[in-house]
C-alpha cells in the first residue's frame, strides 16, 4: 500500500497494534488507542516536509543520521545513548540543527539508521474493540512472541524490550 493510502483507507482511522521491522527482523511493537494515521504519521513517517523539517519524524531523523554521519559514528552514538541520552541528543541536535522531540524518538531513529531505508517496513493490526486492557494484553503477547523469535534467530532485542519486564503475578495471564 502506498504511503498516501492512509488518507483514504478506513483501517488507518482505527486503533490497534503496529509492528516495525527490517528485512525479517522485528524491531518495535507499539499500540495506539486512537488512530494509526495520527500515531504513524505524527511520530514515525514524514508526511509533508520529508526529512528537512525542523522537528522531523523518527524515520526522517534516521535518514538524516544516515546521510550525515559515518556508520562508525552512528555506532558510537548508539553506545553512548545508553549511558548519556541528554549528551547524545544535544550533540546530534547541534550537528544537524534539528529538534528531536523525545529520547524515545532518537533511540528508534538510531536503530533504524543502521538499516537501509528500503528494507524498513511496518504492519498494522487494527482493532474495532477499543478496550484498552484488551489492546494492552495483545501488545504484551505480541512483544513476547517477537522477542522470542529474535532470540531464536539471534537477532537484536526489540527496542521496547522493557515491556517484557512484567510482574510475576501478571504473567499468569500468559
- List the strand order in the largest sheet: 2-1-3
Q: List segments where confidence is low: pLDDT < 50 over at least 5 consecutive residues.
A: 167-174
Give the helix/strand class.
Answer: alpha+beta
Mean pLDDT, to the nearest integer, reads 82
Q: Tell me the helix content.
A: 40-55%
Strand content: 5-15%
Distance between the termini: 34 Å
- The topology string of helices and strands comes to EEHHHHHEH
How many helix segments? 6
Keywords:
3-stranded antiparallel β-sheet; 174 residues; 44% helix; 3 strands; alpha+beta; 6 helices; disordered C terminus
What does the model show?
Helix 2 (58-68) packs across helix 5 (103-112) and helix 3 (71-83) runs antiparallel to helix 4. With 174 residues, this protein is an alpha+beta fold. Helix content is 44%, strand content 13%. The longest helix is centred in the C-terminal third of the chain and has 22 residues, at 132-153.
Amino acid at each position: 500500500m502506498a504511503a498516501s493510502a492512509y488518507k483514504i483507507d478506513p483501517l488507518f482511522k482505527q486503533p490497534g497494534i503496529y509492528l516495525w521491522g527490517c528485512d525479517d527482523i522485528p524491531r518495535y511493537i507499539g499500540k495506539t488507542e486512537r488512530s494509526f494515521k495520527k500515531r504513524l504519521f505524527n511520530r514515525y513517517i514524514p508526511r509533508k516536509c520529508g526529512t528537512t523539517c525542523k522537528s522531523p519524524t523518527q524515520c526522517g531523523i534516521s535518514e538524516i543520521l544516515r546521510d550525515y554521519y559515518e556508520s562508525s559514528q552512528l555506532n558510537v552514538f548508539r553506545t553512548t545513548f545508553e549511558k548519556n541520552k541528554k549528551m547524545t541528543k544535544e550533540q546530534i541536535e547541534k550537528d544537524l540543527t534539528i529538534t528531536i522531540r523525545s529520547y524515545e524518538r532518537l533511540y528508534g531513529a538510531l536503530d533504524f539508521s543502521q538499516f537501509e531505508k528500503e528494507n524498513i517496513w511496518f504492519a498494522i493490526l487494527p482493532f474495532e474493540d477499543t478496550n484498552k486492557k484488551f489492546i494492552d494484553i495483545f501488545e504484551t503477547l505480541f512483544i513476547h512472541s517477537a522477542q522470542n523469535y529474535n532470540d531464536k534467530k539471534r537477532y537484536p532485542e526489540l527496542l521496547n524490550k522493557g515491556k517484557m519486564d512484567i510482574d510475576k503475578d501478571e504473567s499468569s495471564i500468559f
